[in-house]
Design goal:
single chain, eight-stranded parallel beta barrel, globular, 300 residues
Length: 300
């Protein structure tokens, strides 16, 4: 699988990474997780990204592939010691979360620790970032990063204290391309694209009320991409969407979450097709510029 230099970290990351949220939130069993991750690693994927608040995702990853630790770069996130929506950015909580994550993942050191969607105010205070820097100095992580969106992400990037940025980029979420990525590039940051296929929101004929991809579904009904019409998408909609994200200048890896080994194989095949042509890419960008509303900001 193609790899790209991950900014100033010196790591060379596969363009397709594994996102660990689904295996936690959708209660994947250990056997399925092992099959999925073994297939991915054997095919050349070398990025596994998770978080302390993705239910038992960290434990499942640790049980499945900790014995293959040399085969992949391991990323996790902090800030929600007690679960998503119950954030705690105090240095003490972050320190506890880091130690718990290392135990769950069955490792002494991760490759990347990220602040998980904290606000610009938290970034400005600086003590949460300092907690990650302390963990790095203690050898618990090689690099530190920020995972988040919109103006919060811009504030994080402008501090120049983070090695990497994880941010939403997709056919239905393009704010970051102009707002944040140029600033990240100036600082040589590694960039991870999250939600790169917009939660495949086009698969719903009717508004998926209350689901994670509901906002993307709303946007797609207005963007009217021929290949991603909600309820009537092209067979290769996911492939085109993923290739779009990986064509965005400055993106190094795109993480896709799934608990289905077949879905992983489909994504890997899409990556092999390479970048979109300049005309294909610019057509999607032009449609966004023509239709996107000012409140279509990056989705956390």
């Amino acid at each position: 699988m193609q790899q790209r230099a991950f900014g100033r970290t010196g790591m060379s990351v596969s363009v397709l990474g594994f996102g660990g949220s689904e295996i936690g939130y959708e209660n994947a069993d250990d056997a399925a997780v092992s099959r999925l991750l073994y297939a991915a690693l054997d095919a050349g994927l070398n990025v596994i990204d998770t978080a302390e608040c993705y239910m038992d995702s960290e434990e499942k990853i640790g049980r499945a592939v900790s014995h293959r630790r040399g085969d992949f770069f391991l990323f996790t996130k902090v800030g929600h010691e007690h679960g998503w929506g119950r954030d705690d950015w105090s240095p003490a909580s972050i320190a506890r979360s880091i130690d718990r994550s290392l135990k769950r993942l069955r490792t002494d050191c991760v490759d990347l620790l990220q602040l998980h969607s904290c606000s610009a105010d938290v970034i400005a205070r600086g003590d949460a970032t300092a907690a990650l820097e302390k963990a790095k100095a203690a050898g618990k992580t090689r690099f530190i990063g920020y995972s988040g969106d919109s103006t919060d992400a811009l504030e994080a990037v402008r501090t120049s204290r983070f090695d990497t940025l994880q941010i939403s980029i997709s056919i239905a979420d393009q704010e970051a391309i102009d707002l944040v990525l140029p600033e990240a590039a100036k600082r040589g940051m590694g960039v991870i694209a999250k939600r790169p296929i917009a939660n495949a929101a086009w698969r719903h004929a009717k508004r998926p009320a209350g689901e994670y991809g509901e906002e993307y579904w709303r946007r797609l009904t207005e963007l009217k991409y021929a290949f991603a019409t909600p309820g009537n998408p092209a067979p290769d909609a996911a492939a085109i969407a993923l290739r779009f994200t990986l064509t965005v200048p400055g993106v190094h890896t795109a993480i896709v979450g799934t608990k289905n080994p077949d879905r992983w194989a489909q994504n890997a095949a899409a990556v092999k097709a390479g970048a979109l042509t300049k005309a294909e890419y610019e057509a999607i960008r032009a449609r966004w510029r023509a239709v996107a509303r000012r409140d279509w900001v990056g989705q956390v």
